[in-house]
Amino acid sequence: MAQLNCPPCTPCANVCIEHQPTQTETSYENPFHVQEDLQPSETELQTSPVGLSASEPPCYLPQQNGNSDVHPLSRPMGPIGPWATGRIDWGSLSGQTGTRPVVDRYSITRYSVDEWRQRNADTIHACANTVSKSEKIEHDSKHIIVRTHAITDKTQSACTEQLHTRARTIDDMKSELERAIKSMQDEISTLEEQRRRLKQSLGVLRTPEAIATECLERRTGRPDTELIRDRPEEELICEIALIAEIRAMLLKTLSEIEAQQVQNRAARQRMEFDWSDKKLAHENDAINCNLTNKSSITMFRPGATRCPNEQSTEIYWQKFSKETLEMCTSCRKQSEQLRATLDVILMNAARDLRTQADSVERALANRISCMEEIRQKLEIDLRTTLQHLADTEIQIEKLKVAIANMDHAMKVVQTRLDNRNQRPRVENCRDQSQILLIAEVKSIEDGLSAMNTQLRQEEDVKNELMTRRSDLEKEIMMKRRTIAIDRDRCQRLRAHFPSSTSLSGY
Questions:
Q1: With 50 as the cut, is the pLDDT of residue 359 above it?
Q2: Residue among 408, 409, 397, 406 at smallest CA distance from 448
Q3: Which residue from 351, 345, 343, 346 is spatially nearest to 499, judged by alpha carbons?
Q4: 290 DSSP assignment
Q5: Which residue of 113, 226, 425, 478 could cross-link 68, Cys pair, CB 3.0 to 4.6 Å?
Q6: Of the candidates 254, 475, 217, 229, which has an alpha carbon nearest to the alpha carbon of residue 371?
Q7: Residues contacting 29, CB < 8 A, separation 6+
Q8: Going by C-beta distance under 8 Å and a sequence separation of 6 or more, which residues neighbour residue 113?
Q9: pTM across the whole model
Q10: Helix or strand or coil: residue 102?
């Protein structure tokens, strides 16, 4: 179409229209209509929007037959004639009304008459809805004024009564706090002596820990093959773990005692602060109870309804007040419980440490006894190995002498065979003597082969015996070193283990 280079008003426009794909030019895409792909029979026009007779609607509203002066609403609005196609023959969107309006020589047509009438009907209908909504809102405003004044008076009376109740509750709680503060005076210094005893026990506990750690470090000096997790090492590890557990328990108890001391001193201060806060709150609520609409000290307070982040709820206030009152009794009971249980903790700790120490010493004694037995057994095996090694060397020498002696016999038989091969002509026959000499050579070779095989086996056994001797000597040396570590160092070191009385803190 761009190749024709002719304006849409020329007769060539008809040719251009024929070569263009059919484009539906519809008015449903304009702001007054949002329906899509409706058939002519499915289009419904709104008639009589303001109560007029449907048979005779005004000229500015949609008509009953749904026809305008030129086009019906359900039919797409197209060009008037071939002289005014309103098409664009040079663009990719040619033929679409939404791209450019239908243009002839004299005017621009964008909407049909039925669309204009429908627009009028929508405007009138929207105005009627707005007026109805205004009347309803006016009626609701009058009603809400009366109802709001009544609710405000009722709410103010209820709030005043609630403030009186709250003031009485605060006053009762303040009286209970005064009695609790007085009962807390005698419980502050009850745990000091037990705390000193516990710290002394913690100081003594460092001795068994140092002994067990030193024993483990000494046992790390054992030879490589003796670095095993045997029973003494397991018992030492258990002893260190037990000491760590007891220390953690004692430290926890000490922290509890110190915390209890702090709580005993802080309980009275907390109750005094709470009593002071309740006194101020009671005075504040007493002032609020006397405020009325005619009071001269009332004023607007912007942000008064905003709840501060630190503001508590009534449930939390009751819980806090109850906890504050119960703190005196709770602190006193905790102090008594700590004094009662501290003796039991120290006694059980001392008993467990002594029991574990006895287990370590028994394990060390059993291990030393076992090492002595294996050392003796290895020494016996070493002596046996040395004896067999000497016997093997003698046998090797005997085999070498026997093999050397077989050379003479081999020389004799080979010489005989060589001499018989020198016989003349027919006399050089393979007689019975020749056969026996050849058999003798084979027999001597078989004997030499057997003795050489036996000699190699004896030499292999000798090498193996020498290896066993070296291993036994090394094992005996390592066993003696391990015994020296366990007996001469660990057992002597554990002789300084503290007694149960010292572990109890006395």
A1: yes
A2: 406
A3: 351
A4: T
A5: 113
A6: 475
A7: 97, 98
A8: 68, 69, 70
A9: 0.49
A10: strand
Q: 3-class DSSP state for residue 81?
A: strand
3-state secondary structure of 300: coil
Task: Look at the block and give the residue holding tokens 């000290």.
Answer: 297
Q: Which of 440, 451, 444, 442 is nearest to 403 (CA)?
A: 451
Q: In the predicted model, is pLDDT for residue 41 greater than 70?
A: no
What are the helix (H) ranges across 421-431?
none
Question: Which three-class secondary structure string do you get for 439-490?
Answer: HHHHHHHHHHHHHHHHHHHHHHHHHHHHHHHHHHHHHHHHHHHHHHHHHHHH
User: Residue 427 is encoded by which pair of tokens?
Assistant: 């006399």
| pLDDT level of residue 358 (50, 70, 90 thresholds) | very high
| Model confidence pLDDT, tens digit, residues 2-14 | 343 444 444 443 4
Phi and psi torsions of 43, nearest 5°: -80, 125
**Phi, psi for 331 (deg, rounded to 5):** -60, -40
CA distance 506 to 501: 6
Between helix 314-420 and helix 192-204 the angle, nearest 10°, is 10
Res. 212 pLDDT band, cuts 50 70 90:
very high
Confidence grade of residue 81 (pLDDT, cut at 50, 70, 90)? low
Other Cβ atoms within 10 Å of 484 Cβ, number = 14
